[in-house]
Amino acid sequence: MGSIATYIADKAAKKKQTPAEWLESNLNNLDRYWVSSHIGRYTHPDAAVHLYDDSSPTGKGYLTTADAAVKQDIYVDGGSAFMSIASFLVSRFSQKETIAEQREDLEAKTAWQYFHEDSPFIRREIESLGIEYEPLREKVLHIQTSKIPERSDARLKQVYFPIPDRDGEYHLLSILPPSILMLELTNRIRMEFQIQRKCQDKKSEYYGGPYQTSPDLTVVCFGGANVQNVSVRNSSLGMQVLSSLPPCLTGRKIKMPKRNFFSDSLYWRRFSDMLSDLDTLFRDQRHNLEMRERREDIILDFVETVLYEANRLQNLPAGWSKDTELSDEQAVWLDAAYGSQRQVDTDWIWPVCLDFARWLVNAYKKFCHYEKLQEISLSDAEMHAFASTMEVVLKQEVREG
Prior knowledge:
Elements (H helix, E strand, L loop, with lengths): L2 H12 L4 H9 L5 E4 L1 E2 L10 E2 L21 E4 L7 H7 L1 E2 L5 H5 L5 E2 H7 L2 H8 L5 H9 L2 E2 L12 E5 L7 E5 L4 H22 L17 E3 L18 E3 L19 H5 L6 H12 L5 H26 L13 H7 L4 H6 L4 H23 L8 H21 L1
Parallel strand pairs: 1-7
Antiparallel strand pairs: 1-4, 2-3, 5-6, 8-9, 10-11
Helix pairs in contact: 1-2, 10-11, 10-14, 11-15, 14-15
């Protein structure tokens, strides 16, 4: 049984129906459906305005409703009680065979797309349930399309736009969020995450490859207590949107080191989660390649945070370290005044890495004492391994300039 057939069979089983009975009982609700691209309920759950943009693609590189890969959202009159077939139509299904392949399939399509393409895949899936495919496809293709409404709705967000040279007159603009663009953005962000996981997975053929990330994402849901009263596209996970906050012009205050960057500028409590992960690893009795790789990943997390703080100091006006008691090696590393020396003479790297390792061991001791845990004794070998991990990263930074 394939992915579409399994979906229908599972829904039917929950209602104690056969797949044919489940479909037949829910197909009666198709007259409540409108194919839409803009839905007023995203502004207000009681707004009944909706329309469908079927314009041709612009081909200009901008993301518009005409260029979106998936154009269909479905407006449902009556709320979540009538969502079943709509949820099925906009769900993505893969033609891959294994569960692992299905999860990684970036080319999966919606049932709606398969019906419109008259795909042999969906025909085979539907007929495997003992359901006639052609009558079902005919009903799906005849779902009504939203028209441009004759009037607006007072519950929508509105803009009064003055008309030039016509004193006191204005255009009333009703803002309808394009739900299919929100969906397309969400899909693209999730595809980014899938690609990122592959590029970071050492077992993947894409390991080490380039990928993009979208930081500071927000998941939004619309409507009241039941989010399904908006549209089927918003029925479960909501939509992911990029951060729309203004840039932060004043960063977090930098804690200037006086004697030692690690002990002065890096408060161990900030690393509690990573220290907890490290402690769990230390208490694991297995000593194999997987455990060593996990330890390496955790130490790299520490290094990444440390280097972020170091970079903030490197961006300060040159010469700030002259009023401190930092070691020569840390001053070369952190002060822009020694930027050229930092690149030419790398003797500073290993002493800095040893300072990092000592700080990490001391932070782990403080964490165990604070959490009232029996401390795992760490030898010089572990400290040397911590330092070596940071050494690799610092040497790479020097090579890359």
